Each structure stands twice: as C-alpha cells, then as structure tokens.
Task: structure prediction
Amino acid sequence: MRLDKYISNSTDLSRSEAKRVIKHSLVAIDDRTISDPAQKVAPNQIVTIEGAAIRHVGNRYFMLNKPAGVVSVSKDKLHTTALQLIYEHRSETLQIAGRLDIDSTGLLLITDDGKWNHRLTSPRSDCAKLYSVGLATEIGADYAQKLAAGVQLEGEKHRCLPASMQQIDSHHLSLQIAEGKYHQVKRMFAALGNHVMSLHRTQIGSILLDTDLEPGDYRPLTPAEVASSQ
Result:
C-alpha cells in the first residue's frame, strides 16, 4: 500500500495531510525517514510519525440492524443514512454491501473491502438472501409454485431466478431469493397481484442478523462470518 494511503487509513489525517507530513520528513518506515508519499509499505513494516508508531487496522466488516426510515446510501440531504449509524474511524471509507429500501428493515452489511462487497453482491455470486415478508392480502395457494418457477417482473427481459417461500400465516411468509434486482421482493409480489406491507431481511449467505442487535445497532462481523463470504 502507498505510504500516504496507509497513513490516511490508519490515522485522522486526510490523504493530503499525510502527504504533507511525509514531505516534511516526519515519517519513517522501520526507522528510515521517507519523503516520498508513493513509497510502498509492506504488512510487516513499522510506520512512525515523529517517532510514534501507527498501525493499519486492515479491512473492516460490520452488520447493522437497519431501522425503517434510514436509506442505504452514503449521503442523503433528506434522510439519515446507514453509514451515519456507524460510529467508526474513517467511516467515510465504508460502503454498503446489498441495499435495503428506506422502509425495509434488517440485516445490512457494511465494509471497506471492495472485493468482498463485490463477491457478495455480484449478480453471479448466487448469494441467498432470506426475508420475512408481510403482505396486504392473503397468500395465494399458487404463490410457492409461481415463485419456484421464477416470477416475471414488469420491465425485465428475463424471469427472476427460482425463489422459495415458507408460509407463516395467511399474510406472512419467509422468502429466499438468490439475486438482488431493484425493489425485487416488492415487484415480485406486485406481479402476483399483492402488495408488500413489511420487509425484514434476516440473512445474507451464511450471515444471520444478530437477534441481540436493536434497530439502529451494529457490531463487527466475526472472522468466521467474514470468511463465509470469501
């Protein structure tokens, strides 16, 4: 990693501020003063600023129990964003892996690892997602069959991939899908002549929403949770 980026990721200094302290000969790698911001830093090397060692924390991974009314974007002038609920160093470098609508709730994954995010959200990843769904009218007797066959969404060229459902009561079900089209769950049930009243995501891949997290709370993923999506 470039030295200026290493310092910016590891401290409160911006990239331009990091370049400034480097050019003023205040930074050393393994006790050797460095004045080139583009100097590469190896994982086993020690970087110091005015003699004080700094440490690169590596990639970060969090799960958030997203409440309703929060948007899954980095910036928004009208609504609270999911990233505004993450109180971490350099939170502006974090990104959302798999969005939820403003009125949808539940599991949201947040990271600064772009490759991990892509593996999780790529259309080719075939990463299963589990939702609790509440509908406006009763569940049709043919819903399970139609979902398994792949629902045709309005405006889409191809049908959705097969989905599976488990009925809970007359208006509630759990739904598992393996893709993430725009407003997919809502559009699927609209195509079946129904309307989604509540949508709560409980699982992405092997990662389950921690039931101890209150809406708006978050926690780091465990190493096993991170590895399950690598």
Observations:
- The chain has a mean pLDDT of 92.
- The CA atoms of residues 7 and 18 lie 6 Å apart.
- The two ends are 21 Å apart (CA to CA).
